Amino acid sequence: MSALRRAPWGLLAAVAALAVPLVGSRFYTFVATDVAIMALFAVSLNLLLGYTGLVSFGHAAYFGVGAYTTGLLMKKAGVAFLLAFPAAGVLAGLCALVFGFFCVRLTKIYFAMLTLAFAQIVWAICFKWNDVTGGEQGMPEIPYPDLAWMERLPVVGDLRTSDHFHLLTVVVVALCFWLLRRIVGSPFGRILTTIRENPERAEFIGVHVRRWELLAFVLSGAFAGLAGALFGIFNRGVFPDFVYWTKSSEVLIMTILGGMGYFYGPAVGALVLLVLNQQITSYTEYWPFVLGTILIVLLFAFPGGIVGALDAGCRRLAGLRRA
Amino acid sequence: MLEVRGVQKAFDGFQAVAGVSLAVARGEIAAIIGPNGAGKTTLFNLVTGHLRPDAGAVLLEGRDITGLPPHQVCRLGMGRSFQRTNIFPRLSVFQNVQAAFISHRGRGLDLLSRVDRLYRDEAEALLASLGLLERAGEMSGFLSHGAQKQLELGIALASEPKLLLLDEPTAGMSATETHETIRLISRIARERDLTLLFTEHDMDVVFSIAQRITVLHQGHVIAEGAPAEVRSDPEVRRVYLGERR
Amino acid sequence: MPDPSFLFAQALSGLTAAMFLFLIASGLTLIFGVLRVLNFAHGSFYMLGAYMAFQVVRWLGREPSSFWWAALGAAVGVAVLGGVVERLLLRHLYDKEELYQLLFTYALVLILSDAAKVLWGTGQLSVSRPPGLAGAFRFFGTTIPYYNLFILLLGPAIALLFWLALTRTRRGRFIRAAALDREMLGALGVNVSGLYTGVFVLGSFLAGLGGALVTPVKAIVPGMDVEIIVEAFIVVVIGGLGSFWGTFLGALIYGQVLSFGILIFPRFSIFSVFALMAVVLILRPWGLLGRPLKT
């Protein structure tokens, strides 16, 4: 294994992310926060997709539930972020428990379609329940968490509130990543991969496949909810399109673009996709066309995603050097 | 050890298994043979819980396991290898076996320990007894067919079964591989005091190690007993060799 | 008790919608049954059929027959596109995971929807009814346009035609066999890959035809691809993925649900449509006439 693989990529990325506000550009910080949150969203999906082998077309449901939970608690009930944030994960996890219970009884395309159906039901509820969710208008003006304590810190004390929130986001996301890393590197995680590889065989080493799939579904949904909570605040408002199927397709593409066979793959995918989106939409309105083309190139030329391609490239280089 | 009482299974009107009964004593090595389509694999699936019998019962050590799901049957002490090699292709040889240990020892819900070295000793010991230790780090999907079958045996053994069901363990193997596999299986059965039930097409294999043979034809048992008896049974000869009386 | 002629009108409109849905959904279910791919781009093919029909009518001018040529041309055009897509691109993904095939069809949706915007803009377009079927007649208290009657008769006619083709012709039998066991079929020496292309072309033809024929009734707008694919999904789920008559039945049922549902629940479409899909998938995932899933 080359030194390149063993480098603490996660740590490096976290440090880099923390340093972004120091550059002083509002725009860069904005993009960096966006990337961090979507990276968490994508890695949460990958627990289900890359590790357990379950394709969900409706992951945005839990993202949205998390966002609405935190939004509602903080805006309408004045609850502190410290409580509203974990609440998002809990509620999203519960939602995943209910939906997942029905979904894991199905396989393949039927599973995927039910996840989509559930997500669209959630969307319809958010879109129509004007009293609670604000309906089509959503919930604008979600307050920032109380970040006054940050102003007393050295180095970062003088930065803007949005920068402070960025730092908070990076720390929280890094913590979630650490947790997720532990989970996939645990005996539980190993069992998940057996389900991905061969569910029939997994049954006959004593694994109650449906139960483990449900567990993965719930964990995946909970972390997506946490990402949603952060996004609602970052976006200064929570809207129904957080739950729309296009959001689910976005995160799915990020995950595959980066590489679902690698833990940080989806995070890389989030970075690349968001940056590309920014750049391309400033030139043309035909971003879907570009995205579709990228997707096709990806599927045919780089099925392992960006990280997969890099990994293969490194391996080839190492092979050449040895020869 | 294992008792099958009058199990039946039909698919869309086709009676695959029509009232089969058999018994395997503890420590015995038993075989089920029969021409293609006789219902051997269906019978296996009924015993392991992959299929629910329309009628009849399956008992393991006297306990009724009819209709229990496969993962529970496995936990009650039954191991199985499948006809088409069933391993975890993108996991390493070591990880394949490790996963079985994790599940068997009940660590499947451990979300926070590190899994890298878990059950390393046990897994390596098992792999060594199968001759796969040097390949422990390789991706199992790249192994040769014979090695994959051995690995599959290892996965089944890691669950410490009392009864092992082997569905065509030497399918697709060369003469040398077959010979080695049979030697391995009998040695393992002896060492671990296993009860073995297997299906086979290769008659040499069957007659070399089976102590008891059940012959299936079109879903019925047409003969049963020690190898010598079965070999000379006229019904068996008719079915296999087309001999007339 | 609501006015019977009103009920009749609603039922009729539900039937008409059902026939359009059947045209599109039948292609979807055919492709899924044989290729095991849920073609997200099917709605895009439908949309392209509509746009192409519009274009051809524009080229041919106000001839009495120009609509029919346009419909045929559009269907053939979409079929050709489908064939090209399958032969050049999709077939290379068959040995990869199903997810890749699905994502590919999704990528097509993205590309085709923007392509349509580039070629025809984002405004609403329409095609007038063919002169031969322009009028309407009164029946049982309702005004029924002749064109709708035509569609009501065409739907079952096409269903019957396809059913005969699938059961009586050699190709048809191959198609049904491929849906059951493609490996065996290949082992028997049948040109399975050619069969796949053929099925995809056929499915696309149906989608394009559906899109072309709907133009006198519905406006051609961007977004019609997504709208129809969602409805097609529900139809095939209700009827059973891969089942031909199931799709017909599903379309009939869903057509009525659409028609009467809006009356009972004004806020019907967005919530209830997916709730219906979820209920079917939970209780009976293989739909009404599909094959029960292996557990």
Distance between the termini of chain B: 36 Å
Quote the CATH topology of the largest domain in chain B: Rossmann fold
Structural Rg of chain B: 18 Å
Structural domain count of chain B: 2
Which oligomeric state applies?
A: heterotrimer
Strand content of chain B: 15-25%
What does this structure look like?
With 323 residues, chain A is mainly α. In chain A, 74% of the residues lie in helices and 1% in strands. In chain A, strands 1-2 form a two-stranded antiparallel ribbon. In chain A, helix 4 runs antiparallel to helix 5 and helix 8 packs antiparallel against helix 11 (209-234). Chain B has 245 residues and is α/β, with parallel strands linked by helices. Chain B has two domains: 1-77 and 161-245, Rossmann fold (3-Layer(aba) Sandwich), CATH 3.40.50.300; 86-160, no CATH class. In chain B, the strands form two sheets. Chain B has a six-stranded mixed beta sheet with strand order 6-7-8-3-9-10, sandwiched between helices. In chain B, strand 4 and strand 5 (63-64) form a beta hairpin. The mean pLDDT of chain B is 85. Chain C has 295 residues and is mainly α. Chain C has helices at residues 4-35, 42-60, 66-88, 98-120, 146-168, 170-180, 182-187, 192-214, 224-239, 244-264, 268-283; strands spanning 136-139, 142-145. The A-C interface holds A 55, 102, 105-110, 112-114, 117-118, 120-121, 123-125, 127-128, 249, 252-253, 256, 286, 288-289, 291-293, 295-296, 299-300, 303 and C 32, 38, 89, 92-93, 96, 98-100, 102-104, 106-111, 113-115, 117-118, 233, 237, 241, 267, 270-271, 274-275, 277-278, 281-282, 285, 293.
Task: Compose a concise summary of this entry.
Chain B has 245 residues and is an alpha/beta fold.
